[in-house]
Design brief:
heterodimer, A: alpha+beta, Alpha-Beta Plaits, three-stranded antiparallel beta sheet, two-stranded antiparallel sheet, 3 helices, 5 strands, 38% helix, 13% strand, rod-shaped, B: mainly alpha, 68% helix, globular
Amino acid sequence: MKEYLNNIYSALFTIFVGMKVTFKHLFVPSVTIQYPDVKLDLPERERNRLYVNMDDCIGCDQCARACPVNCIEIETVKSLPEEDLGKTSNGKKKALWVTKFDIDIAKCCYCQLCVFPCPTECIYMTDVYEFSEFERNNLVYDFVTLTPDERVEKKINFEKFEAEKAAQKAAAAEAAAKAKAEKKEDNKE
Amino acid sequence: MIYDFFTNLFNNQIIGIIISAALPLLLFILPFVLVAVLMERKVSAHMQDRLGPMRVGYHGILQTVADLLKLLQKEDIVADVNDKPLFNLAPVIVFAGSYAAFAAIPFTGAYIGSNVDLGIIYIIAATGLVVAGILMSGWASNNKYTLLGAMRSAAQIISYEIPTILVVLSLIMITGTMNLETLSQMQTGYFWNWMILGGPGTGLDKFLFIPFTVIGFLVIYISTLAEVNRTPFDIPEAESELVSGYHTEYSGMKFSIFFLAEYANMFAVSAIVATLFFGGYQSPFGYLGNTLGAHWLIPIEQFFWFTVKGVFFVFVQMWLRWTLPRLRVDQLMAVCWKYLIPIAFVNLIIIGLITVL
């Protein structure tokens, strides 16, 4: 009988204790963060989406070589002597047209290894972490500032320049050979 | 009153009956369910230090409307192996059972669906229909979880009807009436006339009643909680064990009818507890209408107090739901047969002796 009454008492008592706890929690400010409206501050050195500042890129290809998953693809074309590409913000002279700078962010493993070798500090991690896409192809980011026409043009320009140079060289070599031959003939005489 | 009014208005008894029968559903239960579902989610969220629905409307107040629209658009799935007639009939019976209870509940002094003398006994009998509907849905779904849920629900509701009826009987002994309208009118005046504080009497017996009416209130509150399958007595639904119990196989509108019936039931039992022990629609401190001399105000005030009391007890049900864990089946039966029924019996006998004195 004593146990029976004790059970009733402890049941009622514990129910009221529990109800007191939950009632207090009704007035505790909630811990919810209204995510798309309110965003938490990220840690200082967070690693998210890569960004390349093409104004500073000298096309040295060091980031692509550092990448462990090969998600960076770079193609460059040498500039012509009369073209002036300007300087980077830390005073390096740019000598190459960057005609392809693709980062496949779907492959990227966010290791940040590409950031350290960059001599001009133009590739770095940003705080953007919401970049989901419906098409996987949209995750290949193209950072080149040239238009597609310009890229082709630069390539053709360089090829022309090379061809001219080769022609000049060939002409010069021919001329030299001629001169040599004449000289030889002179010597014979 | 309302029935007479509509009968005279249309000069046709059938239209009068239909309109007065649909009134509580359209004017009260549907809006109440919309509010109560949101309230449940908000109360649960804030008790767990969350915010709950926030995106539809200001602080999510239109969330239930959006959910209702979604449920309306959903496909009504009936599997091949279901027992189709029973499967389709079950939600109707469950809702009819819980809606029938509203017929005898006095909303205000001016509106009661049917002023039957058997009032409270009629309500208990009518809500018994819910068990049949739940068993039908569990069986017709042809699914082990629904059948288990339905069996548990039937066992639970039938067991817990006994303490409910015993407490109701002890109240009938005090008041001498089963009519809820008369019972509400007896508790008029101030809150010390409420049954939980010994009823409208003035003698020594009023004070002797007080501890036993409080015990009676606790017993009937716990047992009605079990009758509407709410936590801690929600083993028929037991979402962690039985998917969602007897309405697992239902979708779309049929599911929402079950949902509607559940919340209608919650309000029905809260209203019954409020009517039996807390003065029904009576105001605790007199009426503004009387003070101002505006008698048309009184029914509105009464409706207000009735709603406030009902919603308060619904809130306590939610509060308990988010406080207590679920009972095991054997614990559930032990609470009923070993604790509530003996207590209710002793209570009944003591109240009977006091009444005789």
